[in-house]
Structure formats: structure tokens, C-alpha cells
């Protein structure tokens, strides 16, 4: 079991229970004390992610999104303790959402085994261009009943002096629909510049290559 699989199950199945324990054992005023700081941090992460900027690595982003759901569950549990009828309506809607997510989590005990493949990089390529550092992560999605394996390549501009990275490209290949030897160990990825534009280049040992303009 990979980390995304465990995180999926924890988010949908365990977080509602944790939120219930938090609200039952901690006074509401203490829970709300740090709400602005928590919301600010989560909002900042979402804004950066929207502009394709994130902390280094996939796992930190996954954790942030997972924690957002935990915060949502805690808020819904706190609302249930309030006496205002209008707020309670929000709590009921939130509870329905949590119940649906819990059902998805139960189904996902098996389903997430397949889905989580696409969230766990099985290979990383690091390279440089004009003294700039880059990393490409490969994600493979396929199982016995599929004829094709889909390979997703996400390329990031990395910075050695800060713990941030910026996504500059996402490219998909199906192993039976490309002449590239996508799964081979000798696959090379690089960046080149032509006519003022940057191109990402995929090249395999059989001589075939693929290039596309990037940001």
C-alpha cells in the first residue's frame, strides 16, 4: 500500500471520527482561537497551488488537501453544537457531505488501490537547462484488464534555495499509441530552446523523440 492510498482512506474514514473526538473534548472557544491562522495557511496553499506553485514533492500537497477536509469535518461538528437554526442547516448539509464521503471511503478500500497508482510517482528525472534545475515525475496507471498503460509526466522548475517548485508541463502517453519506449530505463527528458520558446523533449533509445512547447 502506497502513501496516497493510506491518506485517501484516512481522510474519508478516519477524519470524521477524529473531528468528533476533537469537538467532544475541546471547548469550542479553544477550537476557534486559531481559526484565522489555520484558514490563512490553507488559503495561501490553495492560491499558490492554483498558480501551479507548491511545496517540493507531491506528499506535502496531498497532506494539505487532506487536512482541509479534517478542518471541514471539525467545523461541521462544532456547528452541530450551536443553537442557531440557520447555522444548523449548514451543519446538516455538511453532515450529508461527510456521510457521502464516508461511503466513498468504504467503497474506496478496494477502488483506491487502483486510483492511488496515479498519485504516486514511480520514477523521477532530474536535469538542468541554462543553470535552471528541473524535475519530471512519472505516474503510471494500468492494471491487468487494461490494454494500455497510461504514463503521466509532470515537469517542475525547482529552486535549490527555497522549498518551492512550479509546474511547467504535464504530458500523457499511452504505451501502445506512441513509438517512444516510455517504460524503458534509458528514457531521456530534457529542455531545449528554439526561436525564443522552451520545448520539453522525450527521447528513447530506439531513436524516437517527442517535443512540445512549454510555459
What do these coordinates show?
The chain has helices at residues 3-25, 28-33, 35-50, 58-79, 85-115, and strands spanning 53-55, 123-129, 132-141, 150-158, 164-174, 188-194, 197-203, 209-213. It folds into 2 domains: 3-118, no CATH class; 121-213. It has a 5-stranded antiparallel sheet, covered by helices on one side. Strands 6-7-8 form a 3-stranded antiparallel sheet, with no helix packed on it. It contains 5 helices and 8 strands. It is elongated. Helices cover 46% and strands 27% of the residues. The chain is of the alpha+beta class and 215 residues long. The relative contact order is 0.11.
Which key features would you list for this structure?
5-stranded antiparallel β-sheet; 215 residues; 2 domains; 3-stranded antiparallel β-sheet
Amino acid at each position: 500500500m502506497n502513501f496516497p492510498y493510506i491518506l485517501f482512506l484516512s481522510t474519508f474514514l478516519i477524519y470524521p471520527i477524529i473531528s468528533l473526538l476533537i469537538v467532544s473534548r475541546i471547548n469550542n472557544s479553544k477550537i476557534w482561537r486559531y481559526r484565522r491562522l489555520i484558514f490563512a495557511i490553507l488559503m495561501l496553499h490553495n492560491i499558490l497551488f492554483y498558480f501551479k506553485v507548491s511545496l517540493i514533492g507531491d506528499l506535502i500537497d496531498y497532506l494539505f488537501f487532506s487536512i482541509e477536509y479534517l478542518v471541514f469535518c471539525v467545523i461541521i461538528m462544532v456547528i452541530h453544537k450551536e443553537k442557531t437554526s440557520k447555522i444548523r442547516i449548514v451543519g446538516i448539509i455538511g453532515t450529508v457531505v461527510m456521510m457521502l464521503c464516508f461511503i466513498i471511503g468504504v467503497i474506496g478500500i478496494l477502488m483506491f488501490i487502483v486510483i492511488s497508482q496515479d498519485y504516486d510517482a514511480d520514477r523521477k528525472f532530474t536535469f538542468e537547462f541554462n543553470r535552471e534545475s528541473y524535475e519530471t515525475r512519472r505516474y503510471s496507471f494500468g492494471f491487468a484488464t487494461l490494454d494500455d498503460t497510461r504514463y503521466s509526466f509532470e515537469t517542475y522548475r525547482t529552486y535549490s534555495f527555497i522549498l518551492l517548485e512550479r509546474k511547467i508541463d504535464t504530458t500523457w502517453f499511452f504505451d501502445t499509441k506512441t513509438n517512444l519506449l516510455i517504460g524503458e530505463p534509458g528514457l531521456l527528458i530534457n529542455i531545449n530552446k528554439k526561436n525564443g520558446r522552451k520545448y520539453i523533449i522525450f527521447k528513447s533509445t530506439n531513436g524516437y523523440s517527442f517535443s512540445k512547447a512549454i510555459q
